[in-house]
From TrEMBL, chain A:
Protein name, per record: Glutamine transport ATP-binding protein GlnQ
Top enzyme class: hydrolase
Gene from which this protein is expressed: glnQ_2
GO cellular component terms attached to this protein's record: plasma membrane
The ABC transporter domain, residue ranges: 8-252
Domain of life: Bacteria
Subcellular localization(s) per the UniProt record: Cell membrane
Membrane topology: Peripheral membrane protein
Pfam families according to UniProt: ABC_tran (PF00005)
UniProtKB/TrEMBL annotation, chain B:
NCBIfam families per the UniProt record, alphabetical: HEQRo_perm_3TM
ABC transmembrane type-1 domain segment(s): 13-198
Protein's UniProt name: Putative glutamine ABC transporter permease protein GlnP
Keyword Transmembrane helix appears in the UniProt entry: yes
Presence of keyword Membrane: yes
UniProtKB/TrEMBL annotation, chain C:
Name of the gene encoding the protein in the UniProt record: glnM_2
InterPro entries: AA_ABC_transptr_permease_3TM, ArtM/GltK/GlnP/TcyL/YhdX-like, MetI-like, MetI-like_sf
Gene Ontology biological process terms from the UniProt entry: amino acid transport
Pfam families: BPD_transp_1
Protein name stated in the entry: Putative glutamine ABC transporter permease protein GlnM
Origin organism lineage: Bacteria, Pseudomonadati, Pseudomonadota, Alphaproteobacteria, Hyphomicrobiales
Length: 256, 217, 218
């Protein structure tokens, strides 16, 4: 796949925390309109990698392009400079994120959470943002919760609000950081259902998850990470029926 | 500034320290007593004490000092400045510290009280053997910080003529027609005293935490 | 009864005193709340030398009794060529002092805002200004209202000490009336009632914020 066509293009990304290498030399290209699931044992670096994609973690080396545009640094190689805060903030508006623990803003209503960034960061007219926000909430089945405060919602509802907040940005890419790990088992389904619908609509999504069944059904690509490296990139069928590496085989045996 | 001038201010510092020491020794037990009385929920008494605490919390300390100093003679008590100052400081700190004691009593684990009753401890023994040993340790931090707050209040008693640090500095300033240097020296003395207390509070809190393994029940 | 009459006849003095107390405290808050927020931002975000310097200044100010700060500012400003009348000197000292306490209150409140909340703001491209204006400060206003209310009451109490540098605030008025009419009880009782009223007003404000808090945070 040519680098230019990729929605996300990662080259040589490394990350170390106090001399401890968490990510090693990661290259990856993801096509637009596809859903990618990142799998791997805990501590494999998958969440750190996801957080590098929107520069919440700053990679120690390497470059990341979203839809062809460099993020975090301007210029490559020796000429690379850290982006100005303002520039980085602007770049982040095209990459929305859904967090494991929802991270909703508790002082704003559900609709307030959804329209916050579209109105104040992107600069959309409030009326338009509210209309779009209500439409998105209706899509995830929360139309009647628009004026409620987050603390009144269940975990599954909170995560659907968080997904609505991401959709309202009309991003090029949505990153999901273990979106169902903090949920009670009976709520996992409703959240995965929403993500599944979005996948059908052709959004570009990257999902770090432990839900094997979901990954098998929904992903276009499986990325398997272990020990801070990408060990396999494959279609779900290829990955689950014929994993290439020992580590992947062991991982599937344990979790599949 | 001359040596005698400095001596005047240092003599004032002794008075400040004595005022603070006497008032704290009177007000912390008094505060505990007020809290215990409110804990009992005796209808009239509880209401009166609550009103007393709200009034003192809202009233500026200097206003309280003037009030005590001017009022008591009209009630037939001829009060000298020093006892009046001690009375005002004690009332003030008793009201504030009673709130600390009160919240300590309110949040005291109910099951411990029930256990004490179940083992036949009298009400008095429950308090002296079970409750008090825990709450004073747990609230040592806030109680010690009442000491620093009290020390910060003391300059106000200068208005009724007690010659403590501030009044002494004022005198030196009036004699030399240069008020700034003595007030700077006075500020330095207060800051040193209070900073030492704050340090001390941290050390004591750490020791308590180390010895008893916890800070609050 | 004659005491009450004295208070009634001197009502202009009391009103003038109360107005001075209120105008001092309100002006002080208008200045020290933004300054306190700004200091707290420096205390949490600035690089080491500036942050440490400010932390030392704040700690030091919190060790000084207010009356002494007021004296030093009142007698010190002329030394640096600034002649202010007592009201203005009083406002300067009250503002400096209150700012130090508010800086510490806001700093602690900033730390209490959930980290993931702030991270989400970064992820959605909120600038630092927006982060503070839209995410952090509204939450601080709701969560720290009781502590801020306590500080406002403390500032009202501190303002009475300004009578000593001849600011004609409420306690000055009570003292003046009591000295002129030889009836101490009623004038001071009147002043204390007015202080109590002010503190009730502050507590009502705090209660309103707490109602908002229950609605939003449960």
């Amino acid at each position: 796949m040519a680098e230019i066509d990729a929605a996300i293009s990662v080259r040589g990304v490394c990350k170390d925390f106090d001399g401890f290498e968490v990510l090693r030399d990661i290259d990856l290209d993801l096509a637009p309109g596809t859903t990618t699931c990142i799998l791997g044992p805990s501590g494999s670096g998958k969440s750190t990698f996801l957080r590098c994609l929107n520069w919440l973690e700053e990679p120690s080396a390497g470059s990341i392009r979203i839809d062809g545009t460099l993020i975090g640094r301007s210029g490559e190689g020796k000429a690379a400079r850290p982006m100005a805060r303002r520039e980085l903030a602007r770049a982040r508006t095209s990459i929305a994120m859904v967090f494991q623990h929802f991270a909703l803003w508790p002082h704003l209503t559900v609709l307030g959470n959804v329209i916050e960034a579209p109105v104040h960061v992107v600069g959309r007219p409030r009326r338009q943002a509210e209309e779009e926000g209500r439409a998105i909430l209706a899509r995830v089945g929360l139309a009647e919760k628009a004026d409620a405060y987050p603390h009144t919602l269940s975990g599954g509802q909170k995560q659907r609000v968080a997904i609505s907040r991401a959709l309202a940005m009309k991003p090029k890419v949505i990153l999901f950081d273990e979106p169902t790990s903090a949920l009670d088992p009976e709520m996992v389904g409703e959240v995965l259902g929403v993500i599944r619908e979005l996948a059908k609509e052709g959004l570009t999504m990257v999902v770090v998850t432990h839900e094997m069944g979901f990954a098998r059904d929904v992903a276009d690509t499986i990325v398997f990470m272990d020990g801070g490296r990408i060990r396999e990139v494959a279609t779900p069928t290829a990955f689950f029926t014929n994993p290439q590496s020992d580590r992947a085989q062991r991982f599937i045996r344990r979790h599949g | 500034m001359t040596w005698p001038a400095l001596r005047t201010i240092l003599d004032g510092a002794v008075v400040t320290a004595a005022l603070a020491a006497v008032s704290i020794l009177l007000s912390l037990p008094l505060g505990l007593l007020l809290a215990l009385l409110r804990w009992r929920r005796i209808p009239m008494v509880a209401g009166v004490l609550a009103a007393f605490v709200s009034v003192v919390r809202a009233t500026p300390f200097v206003t309280l000092v003037l009030f005590v100093f001017f009022i008591l003679p009209s009630a037939g008590l001829e009060l000298e400045p020093v006892p009046a100052a001690i009375l005002a400081l004690t009332l003030n700190t008793a009201a504030f510290s009673s709130e600390i004691w009160r919240s300590a009593l309110q949040t005291f684990p109910r099951d411990q009280l029930e256990a004490a009753t179940a083992f036949g401890l009298s009400e008095r023994a429950t308090f002296t053997r079970i409750v008090f040993p825990q709450i004073w340790r747990a609230n040592l931090g806030p109680l010690v910080s009442e000491v620093t707050i009290l020390l910060k209040c003391t300059p106000a008693v200068a208005v009724i003529g007690v010659v403590e640090i501030t009044r002494a500095a004022g005198r030196v300033g009036a004699e030399t027609y240069e008020p700034l240097p003595p007030f700077l020296v006075a500020t330095l003395i207060y800051t040193a005293l209070i900073a030492t207390l704050v340090r001390g509070q941290r050390v004591v809190e750490r020791r308590i935490a180390r010895r008893f393994g916890w800070v609050r029940p | 009864m004659s005491g009450l009459l004295v208070v009634w006849e001197s009502r202009d003095v009391f009103l003038w005193g109360a107005a001075n107390t209120l105008s001092l405290v309100l002006s002080c808050l208008l200045l020290s709340i933004p300054l306190g927020i700004l200091s707290a931002i420096v205390l949490t975000e600035a690089t080491a030398p500036l942050r440490r310097l400010l932390a030392e200044v704040v700690d030091l100010l919190r060790c000084v009794p207010f009356l002494l700060l007021a004296y030093v500012i009142y007698y010190g400003l002329p030394e640096i060529g600034l002649r202010l009348d007592p009201w203005w000197a009083g406002l300067v000292s009250l503002t400096v002092y209150t700012t130090a306490y508010l800086a510490e209150i806001f700093r602690a409140a900033f730390l209490a805002v959930a980290r993931d909340n702030i991270e989400a703001a970064h992820a959605f491209g909120l600038s630092r200004l927006l982060l503070y204006r839209r995410i952090i400060l509204p939450q601080v206003a709701i969560m720290a209202a009781p502590v801020i209310g306590n500080q406002v009451i403390t500032t009202i109490r501190d303002s009475a000490l300004l009578m000593i540098i001849t600011v004609q605030e409420l306690t000055f008025a009570a003292n003046f009336v009591s000295a002129n009419h030889f009836t101490p009880f009623a004038p001071f009782a009147a002043a204390i009632s007015l202080y109590l009223l002010m503190s009730f007003a502050v507590e009502e404000g705090v209660r309103r914020m707490e109602r908002i808090r229950t609605v939003r945070y449960g």
